[in-house]
Amino acid sequence: MKEILTSIRRAPYQSLAAFLILFFSIFLSTVLFISQTFFHSLLGYVETRPQVTVYFDTVTSEKDIFKIRDTLNNSGKVESIKYIGKEDAFKIYKDLNKDNPLLLEMVSADILPPSLEVYAKKPAYLAEIADFLKKQPAAEEVQFQKNIVERLLSLTNVSRKISIALLSYLVLMAVVVLTTSASFKIAMKKEEIELLKLIGATNSYIKKPFLLEGIFFGMVSSFLSFLVIGGTIFYLNPFLNSYLTGVGRLNLNLGFYQLGIWPINYEFLLVTFAVSSLFGIVISVLAITLATNKYLKQ
User: Is 199 exposed, middle or buried (0-12, 13-18, 19+ CB in 10 A)?
Assistant: First the structure.
């Protein structure tokens, strides 16, 4: 630690430039990580909702409804289909209006329509499924929130492309600036490095102080950027709660684990900090390795 502080004091402006570029790179990268995980988890949440609901005429027989269900199942575009008969619909109606006895007296199971709740394998299939159901003579109403799904898909795809482009630019810019800063510091210690070579010091030994300084900058930058972002999230939490009213728990499917994204939890924040720290350390180590390798090969 003493060597790191001494190195910073020897070249304060270069150290400050390296720290600032690393801080802003990690800050923006962390924002991109949070936004991407949120959009993906929100899209996953939408995919678990009844994406297309079709209500049939009350005189439609179960046999005819099941034919339509089987046709959809055989299309290969449907994840699952839930049939809600008249009695099931009446139970749902009673639960929704249990505090209003007058409404319960006016409705019976016979006048409620049977329905199918369709879950597609991919959101892109939703429009095709909805069009197929609208063409069925027995279909009385098809509910499909087309605009919401399409906008969410479009927003997710656009944000992914922008994130990849911006992240690539941030990594390139950070590596260039950090490599330049590290090269300047190495040049300042030219005589000291030459002396170490004369007494038999290995390249790994010479690189070690520079790598430790890079790791230090990466950890400090990620910690400070995480504090700013975490504080902002908690400050905006009341607004987010009101804006996302009705949205249940959002999870990011990692294959082996379901990471909770919303509501904001300490597990997600810990993962975010770990990712940002790793990102900062990798960039710092990469830049310093490039700078030291270039010098030691001379």
Answer: exposed
